[in-house]
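Bench notes, afternoon.
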Amino acid sequence: MFLFFLFNLIVEPPKNVKAIDNPNDGGNKILITWQLSPSDSILDGYEILRRSEKEECFYKIGFVGPNRNSFLDENTEDNLNYYYQISAVKDTIKVFSEISQPAKSYPQWFNKGKLIILLTFFLFGFLILYFIKRARKIELFIRRIAGLSAVEEAVGRATEMGKPVLFVPGLSGMSDVATIAALNILSEVAKKIAQYDVKLIVPNNDPIVYTVAREIVKEAYTSVGRPDAFNPDSVFYLTDSQFAYAAGVDGIMVRERPATNFFCGYFYAESLILAETGAQTGAIQIAATDSITQLPFFIVACDYTLIGEELYAASAYLSKEPILLGSLKGQDYGKFLIIIILTFLSIISLLFNFVIK
């Protein structure tokens, strides 16, 4: 009994309990803060008690250890008043703080912590729209990539050898940006093939991609004035099974001996099987993918490899589409600005640290 009274005298309650709506969230959360008890060093912790305006008693909703002065209540009803009380706990002794002012939770329209992302979004959007507008008036300069220079050479080689050109548009569906970029490249390759009167082979893994690829090739032949040269059987659906598809394409490479193989789009584990077989048949091979895990296989087995974003750059460069060109330019300038800002801030930080020391 004596110890009980002694601890009651020693243990002091926390003070200045405040409850506010948790900022920058979607509601249903209230943040409670308090000033630590002067007896914090000997406490077991703090109990958090809550009562809504509809209730008559306080209920325990949480417990935090000593040296903690905040708690996030994540189970509140929006637009309902809540009252909080904190008790300092030492063994069986509890000393209660004063009751907080009422607080309500409510959702915010905008997370202020993401203001930088919003500004970056507007900056990129402005740059992209500006360069799309410019691309519609003048031809924008884009540095030529070695793999793109090889496209005409590869088609010309197939013409001289009298052998077909094989185009593999990856194993992903139409929802993948890499597939869309690959089909843009296919369109330009098909135009050159139509002009040179070379046989084209386009095996597909996805039925929707097959349908789109077929129309793209047909349109390419029509755009260069050779609709009669289009062979509907040149674009076909093979299978949706990954390794069955790889085996089928390998069989085509061994039987048809194409002079040039294009591997454009998104690839998985079959990439080395395809590229290795093509290398053994002696074909010129041009690969373009943003699949990071498959890039090493294409780099060692192909003559030219477009890495990552070069796939999208190739698509824009070959198609000359103003929207693609403007997007590419806008993104490049946006990245350039970010590099300048990061470099500037890094230098400022280094100088500041140097002055402080």
